[in-house]
């Protein structure tokens, strides 16, 4: 087409795809999930002194986007059966200053959105889904209704980083499910101008009308992402095959050694984003990592609890969140990527089973 700057043909194709497949009222590509979260913080009108509830066991961007607006982050603990936020611990964290809840769908597994949305309605809070890992995963409501993750809260953010199921190297998406935010989101996305309205012929000229930044990616990024979306079903089928091979090959060994493998609650589907082990302690995890490394298999741990981070401890008091700390010390991710074949996975499984724990 000759156009390589943002918001061209491929950007629009991606937008339509997400809106039609997942039911988002508006989708906007961004240069990263971090940018999408920062747009959420702007749209939520987060101000200094506002409180935002965020799980401690997550990537720094989940909290950082709101810290930049001056928010006080109130960290929530993880569930005993899953690294995601403990929905039953959220209400006790809500105060008159609370502005938003930011559930993270860890490993693409849904938080209990029925519980979270009920709390949000009770206390008039915004829900901003961090769906970075949750493309093509769904929440099943108590009434049996299946909704795409990212389509339930008021706003949501996705990641297309190279480590995600669908990727464009770096990239993200803002999903808007509340009509109140659509017009302003386009303005913030386009550097604080009403440029998008101008190109649709809705205004005669465009100008500076609000705050914003250059959040939209180039057409090259969008075209790369579109090629991934054209192959979404094949990619997803392969990742779920990998996940299932790990699950069936390791479940007995894990049970015999008191290791935890991924738990899929009844209200969630599985998008095959991640397969992990939760060890009994950090020492056991180190033994497994070293054994895999000696066999040329790369496996890594995941997040450091944000409430333990140097930045947070310099700015607030220390809290005790035992489950978040437990996952920080004990969780180990196994390789999951499209090119991984059945023989490779069997090799990894056999290597794990051979470890003396």
Would you write up a description of this structure?
- This protein has 357 residues and is of the alpha/beta class.
- It is 38% helix and 13% strand.
- The chain contains twelve helices and twelve strands.
- It has helices spanning 9-22, 33-43, 60-67, 113-123, 182-189, 195-199, 219-230, 232-256, 282-294, 310-315, 322-330, 342-353; strands at 26-30, 51-55, 72-76, 98-101, 126-130, 138-140, 146-148, 155-159, 172-176, 276-278, 300-301, 331-333.
- The strands form three sheets. Strands 1-9-8-5-4-2-3 form a seven-stranded mixed beta sheet, with helices on both faces. The protein has a three-stranded antiparallel beta sheet with strand order 10-12-11. A two-stranded antiparallel ribbon has the order 6-7.
- Helix 2 (33-43) packs parallel to helix 3 (60-67).
- The longest helix has 25 residues, at 232-256.
- The radius of gyration is 21 Å and the shape is globular.
């Amino acid at each position: 087409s000759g156009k390589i700057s943002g918001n061209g043909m491929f950007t629009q194709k991606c937008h339509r795809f997400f809106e039609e497949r997942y039911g988002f009222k508006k989708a906007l590509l961004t240069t990263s999930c971090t940018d999408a979260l920062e747009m959420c913080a702007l749209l939520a009108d987060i101000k200094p002194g506002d409180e935002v509830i965020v799980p401690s066991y997550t990537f720094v961007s989940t909290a950082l986007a709101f810290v930049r607006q001056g928010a006080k982050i109130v960290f929530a603990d993880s569930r005993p059966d899953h690294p995601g936020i403990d929905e039953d611990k959220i209400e006790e964290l809500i105060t008159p200053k609370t502005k938003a809840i930011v559930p993270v769908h860890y490993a693409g597994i849904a938080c209990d959105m029925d519980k979270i949305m009920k709390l949000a309605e009770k206390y008039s809070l915004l829900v901003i889904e961090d769906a970075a890992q949750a493309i093509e995963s769904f929440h099943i409501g108590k009434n049996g209704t299946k909704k795409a993750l990212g389509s339930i809260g008021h706003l949501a953010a996705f990641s297309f980083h190279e480590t995600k199921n669908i990727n464009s190297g770096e990239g993200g998406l803002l999903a808007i499910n509340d009509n109140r935010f659509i017009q302003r989101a386009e303005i913030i996305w386009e550097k604080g101008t009403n440029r998008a309205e101008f190109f649709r012929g809705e205004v005669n000229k465009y100008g500076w009308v609000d705050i914003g930044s250059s959040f939209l990616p180039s057409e090259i990024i969008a075209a790369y992402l579109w090629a991934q979306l054209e192959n979404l079903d094949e990619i997803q089928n392969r990742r779920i095959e990998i996940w299932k091979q790990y699950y069936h090959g390791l479940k007995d060994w894990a049970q015999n050694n008191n290791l935890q493998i991924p738990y899929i609650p009844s209200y969630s589907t599985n998008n095959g984003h991640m397969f992990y082990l939760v060890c009994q302690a950090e020492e056991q995890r180190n033994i497994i990592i070293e054994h895999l490394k000696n066999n040329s298999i790369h496996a890594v741990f995941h997040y450091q609890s944000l409430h333990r981070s140097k930045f947070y401890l310099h700015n607030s008091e220390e809290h005790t969140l035992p489950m978040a700390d437990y996952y920080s010390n004990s969780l180990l991710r196994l390789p999951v990527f499209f090119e991984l074949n059945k023989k490779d996975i069997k090799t990894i499984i056999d290597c794990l089973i051979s470890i003396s724990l």
